[in-house]
Design a protein that fits this description.
The chain is an alpha+beta fold. It has helices spanning 53-67, 72-77, 83-102; strands at 5-10, 15-20, 25-29, 108-110, 116-118. The strands form two sheets. It has a three-stranded antiparallel β-sheet, with no helix packed on it. A two-stranded antiparallel ribbon has the order 4-5. A hairpin with a 5-residue loop joins strand 4 (108-110) and strand 5 (116-118). The protein is flat, with a radius of gyration of 20 Å.
């Protein structure tokens, strides 16, 4: 498996270069430009691509909070990158940084109530 081709992920271009020996060519995919899954509120969002969207979603979320149309828990449930939804990622990144600095493994644990610890 994976002996007849190559896959490269390019963060700068937000895509994938795929070399497939059976195809005899290099293909480039950008799966993030069109979104084929519904938005966090269930609406079609494929036409928007990416770019300003994160700012738009932030402004929409603040507006909904101000008018009482949603709560912080409601925003967390949508899968938006709120503090609660991204704190685990922050803990993992910090553990990686500490591990690189010390040359030792750093464990990440969660207490079941949302508190993350590095050990």
């Amino acid at each position: 498996m994976a002996s007849k081709g190559e896959l490269r992920i390019d963060q700068a271009k937000r895509g994938y270069d795929v070399a497939d020996d059976s195809q005899g060519q290099l293909m480039w995919y950008n799966p993030f430009y069109m979104r084929y899954a519904p938005s966090e509120t269930g609406d079609f969002a494929g036409q928007t691509g990416y770019g300003y969207i994160s700012f738009e979603k932030f402004v929409d979320a603040v507006s909904e909070l101000k008018t009482g149309a949603t709560t912080l828990d409601g925003l967390d449930a949508r899968g938006l990158p709120t503090l609660r939804n991204t704190i685990a990622t922050g803990a993992i990144l910090e553990a990686g940084r500490r591990s690189l600095d010390t040359g030792k493994a750093v464990a990440v644990s969660e207490d079941g109530e949302g508190a993350w610890r590095l050990e």
